[in-house]
């Protein structure tokens, strides 16, 4: 009876030794998957925030460019008039006296 008990317990013990590490390995794998999902989620949130910041910066740049363009459009005719006046002044003959 002792030998029967020994021979029946040995395979059970071996089976337990094989199954226990795989259960632990499965738990480790689940933890790694949770960490990976969390990391991916955090990266997506960060990327979305950076994209929104870039969009806002681009909008500010477009507004500044539009303002500069408006100012340029206002100044060009004034400068053209000034240049025309200077050209006329240079072209006039000077009287020596």
Protein described:
It is built from one helix and no strands. It is mostly helical. The chain has one domain (1-89).
TL;DR of this structure?
The chain has 97 residues and is an all-alpha fold.
Please give the structural blueprint:
Blueprint: H1 2-91
Output the radius of gyration: 42 Å
Q: Helical content, roughly?
A: over 70%
**Count of the domains:** 1
| Main structural class | mainly alpha
Q: Would you list the SSEs in sequence order as H and E?
A: H
Number of helices: 1
Estimate what percentage of residues fall within beta strands.
Answer: under 5%
Tell me about the largest β-sheet.
none
Index terms:
single chain, 97 residues, mainly alpha, 0% strand, rod-shaped
